[in-house]
Amino acid sequence: MKTPQISQLSVASAFDGLDLQQKLYAHYMTKAAWAGSRIVFRQVSPEANGIYDFIIALYDGCDGDWERLATQANVDFQDVQLLLEYAATFLSNMGNYYGSGDQKFTPAISAEKLAVLAASASPRTAALWEQIGSSIFQGTPLGLGPPSDLTQSAYYPGLEGPSFQEDMALVSKIMDELAILPENTRVEKKRTFLEGEVLNILQASVAQKVSTCHVANDLNFDGRIIRLVNGDHKEEMMRISAYLTKALQHVSNRSQHEILEKLIESFITGNLDTYKDAQRLWVNDKAPPVETVIGFVEPYRDPLGVRSEFEGIVGIPDATETKILGELSKMADMFVCRLPWVTSDSNYSDDKGPFEKERFEAPDFSSVQSLAYCSSIIFPGINLPNYNDIRQETGYKGIIFSNRMVAESRRPRGLHLVDELEQETFKKHRFHAYYIWVVLHEILGHGTGKFLNESTAGSFNFDPDSPPLNPVTGKPVSTWYGPGQTWTGVFGDLSTTVDECRAELVGAYLIDDQDVLALFGYSQQGEVTPDDVVYNLYLQLGTDGLRGLENYDPTTKKWGQAHSRAHYAMLRHLLRDTQGLYTVICDQQSGKLTVKVDRSLIIQQGKPSLGRMLLSLHMYRCTADIVGCRKFYEDLTTVDDQAMKWREIIIAKKDPPLVFAHANTYLDGDTVQVREYEPTARGVIQSWAERGIDVDLA
Fold first, then answer.
1. Domains, the chain
2. What is the pTM for the complete model shown?
3. What is the pLDDT of residue 1?
């Protein structure tokens, strides 16, 4: 593995601006967020919790004095440094698979030297090494994905091989019939002497209960028993609920009190309908002094695209940046009218055609400093909730993480793909374009669109006898969502990557809008002009498209990251759909890959091409056309021989992984203090050792 690039998520100044009640609320919500860490480790791999214990035991064994451990074990400190880099990367990714890409990573230190360090640190590290030492270095599974010899998924313990799809089709059918939502579940397959084959739907909750969904004598199920088993992640759910109960005493308003009550009830019972009630209240809790997200949120790592990783976020709003985002939010309806499926000729129209909501309700859109972000991947921005019925009926929130953005501003990814004469300018302009792209992605990419559906038998949100015309085909639409159907349920493994691709396209399509650019302060008289921003964004489309190949596995022929696949699809479409806009120069002998953009063709060819792709994905999504979408998207994301040559160079020059050092909060008499850690491997490990994820109510 490569030496990571480590960034501190600085938050102290924002935290100090809170009053005591807000600090206490932030403290207990932060403790609740990190209390779910072992859930994330468990969702990543069977060995992840053991590796975490080993790392923390090593720290405890030497009291964080790594030089002392090196001397004690008679191991060169350079080898210890390799261990520290692995440990920091593991902790930041919350497992031994990269959060971005889902590929396994192993330490650069040898197993023999790590064994010596384990034996020297303490009896506990020696015992843990015996338990998990081999799994740390085991090369397979290569990545996360459907259970097989080469990939694994901890969402499906015991399920493997060719029966996986059949088993899960059966389980999904039962869950649909019984209205069991999948986000907080895993599925376990067991075989017992008395019962034969059993499929357990493991549901996260404090309460423990076993309910039989179908029994073996039902001929429709080939003798298999299916059960709903409550109590998955019980210890963590208890600890999370206890911290949320403490946070109840320090809420800022009645709405937050109701949100926490609903969250606690959901975490105790496992009932996701109660969780959704909490999400509706959360959407309407506008501009809170401390922003929070907690629960089973993002389905990126589930190979079926429906089960979600636990996530806990606490953020403190940045007033200045939030004001700008608020202005954009107020103007958002005007920008919606400029998207390719909207038929209105005027801004702020209430009649945007059949594939967009009548009025785009401005979301609560804030920029926050991240205090806690318990997740395998820390995104620059998020848009929640992921339940489309709530988004359509109640609304959603957009959040930009400004201290995470700082790390991005210092990291000109894909620089080696840019012509040497342009590299300095690319570095100078990249973050300007990237920031606006992310903002538009979150507020308009994930916030637009109207799903055609039959909500209950015979109740449609359009006229089925005279369905609207599809603007791509010119023919009446013939597919839509049926009663109980959802976007993720219909599109399955494609849902997350297609949704991200569509959102990225919205941001890129609107990047040249002069009203958008003026809002963010860009003018022809500025050091960075609107034309500079637009050109840099299109150059990023090229570099990010090529870099996406990092997360394609030629062995399994699978994509490991939704955004990477989306970026590659966008570049492929632009290469096919334009004439001379992009040029990719590949010199395998020298290991040089360069992408160039013809600035003069961006508005003439680039924007219309993005619009065509965006319109196609939008229509597939609005009309539940999974068949058409799969054909279109899988064709774009097929990696041919030419792209494999590109990938060889991309892998050889892969950017170092990004690792984050989070702060911790702790009680100090009658107040709350925040402690930040240096952006080094040592600092990251120390932060986790002092976080106390297994300690109750600290």
1. 37-140 (no CATH), 155-232 (3.30.70.2600), 440-652 (no CATH)
2. 0.91
3. 83
